[in-house]
Amino acid sequence: MKRAIAAAFTSLLLAAPAGAADLVEIYRLALGSDPVYASARATLEAAQEKRPQGLAGLLPQATFSASTQHNDRDLRFRNPAIAPSQAQFNSNSASVSVTQPLYRRQNLVAYEQGKTQVTLAEAQFASAGQDLILRVAQAYFDVLLAASNLSFTEAQKTAIAQQLAQARRNFEVGNATITDTHEAQARFDLVTSQEIAARADLEVKNRALEQLIGRAAPRLAGPGKAFVPAAPTPGAMDPWVERAKQNSPAVRIAQQNLAFGSQEVARNRGGHHPTLDAFATYTDSASGSGIQGGTGTDTQTRVVGLQLAIPLYQGGLVNSRVREALANEEKARQDLDNARRSAELAARQGYLGVTSSLAQVRALEAALVSSQSSLDSTLLGQQVGVRTQVDVLNAQQQLFSARRDLAQARNNYILSLLRLYAAAGELDSADLEQVNRWLEK
C-alpha cells in the first residue's frame, strides 16, 4: 500500500537546487517549532498526572500538626474568701494523624477516570501527530505546486512573447493582419497578470510553510524520476471504511470520552454509598499548670479506630449530579456515533480521492502527449500556411494547461493517499520517509 506513495512524485518539471531541504527535514523542523503540536504535547504531559492524582485518593493520607501558645490567665473566685490568682504558662502540642480509606466508591472510580484521561490524552496526541504530518505535507507540496505553476506561467509567457514578436514581423512585411498581433498581445497581457498572481501565490505558500517551521522557508527538494501511480491496497473501499470506523483518531477519542462519561455516572452514584476509613492519631502535648504552686502536665495520646459515614440526604445534590452525568454520557455516545460516521465519510473521500486522482493522472499524461503533438503539428501548419497565429496560441495554451493540471493531479494523488492513511489511523512518520526517498536534492 505504502509503495504507492513512493510512486507519486513527478509533480514538478524543474529539479530542486542543490542543498534544498527535503520533506523529512521540514517535518523535523515542524516537530520542534509548530505551536499546535507543542500545545498537544503539553496537554499530554498535563493529562499524564491524572493517574497519580486518582491513585492518591486510595492511598493513606498523613498529616502532622503542631502548635504553641502562651497563656496569661487572671483567675478570680466568687467566694471573696479565696484570693484571686494570676498565672502565665505555655501550652505546646504536636500531633500526627494517618487516614487510610478502606471503602470509598467515588475514589475508586476517580482512579479509573484518571487512567481513562491519560488514554484519552494519548489518543489526542496521536491525532495531533497525524494532523502535523498532513499539514507538513500539504504545505510542502503547496509550495512545490505554486513554484511549478509559476514556472509554467513563465514558460508560457516566453512562448507567447515569441509569437507576439513573430506576429509583429509578419505584419510589418505584410504577411499577416494586425489582428494576429492584437490577439498575441492580448494573450501576452493575460499571461503577465497570471504570472503576477502565481508569484503572489508562491509567496503565500512559503509564508504558510514558515508558520509551521518557525523560520524562513528554505529551498525545497522536488521530485525526481517519473512515477507510475498505483491504486491503494486493499483495492476496495469497504476494508478502508472498516479500519476507519475502528482506528480513526477521532473515533478513539470519542470512545475514551464515552468511557469517561460512563465512569462519571458511576462516580456520582457513589455519593449514595457509605464510606469507611481507618485512622490513627498520636498526640504529644505539654502544658503549664495554670495554678499557683501547681505543676504542669505532659500527655501522650494514641488513638486507632474506624470511621463509618452513611450519607442520608444532601438536598437532592447527588441525584442531580447523577442526572447531569447521564445526560453527558448520552452526549458522548452520540458524539461517538457521529465520529464513526465522519470517519467512514473521510475514508470514502480519501479512497475516492486516490482512485479519481490516479485516473486523472493517467488521463492527463496522455493529454500532455497529445497536446505536445498538437502544438508541434500546429506550428508546422503555421509554417506552411494552413494554421493561423490564433491556432498556435490556442495549442500553446492547451499544452501549458495540461501541464498545470497534471501537476495538480499528482499533488492531489499524494495528499489523498496520506489522508486515506490518516482516516484509517495508520499515518505515521514512516510514510513521509518513504515519500522522501523519491525527492532529489
Structure, explained:
This protein has 2 domains: 3-58 and 105-271 and 319-440, Outer membrane efflux proteins (OEP); 60-73 and 85-103 and 274-310, Single Sheet (Outer membrane efflux proteins (OEP)). It is 64% helix and 15% strand. It has 11 helices and 6 strands. The strands form 2 sheets. The protein has a 4-stranded antiparallel sheet.
- Termini distance? 25 Å
**Strand order across the largest sheet:** 1-2-4-5
Q: Identify low-pLDDT runs.
A: 1-18
Number of continuous helical runs: 11
The fold-level CATH name of the largest domain is Outer membrane efflux proteins (OEP)
Overall CATH class of the largest domain: Mainly Alpha
Provide a quick synopsis of the model.
This protein is about 65% helix and about 15% strand.
Key descriptive features of the protein:
alpha+beta, Outer membrane efflux proteins (OEP), four-stranded antiparallel β-sheet, two-stranded antiparallel ribbon, elongated, disordered N terminus
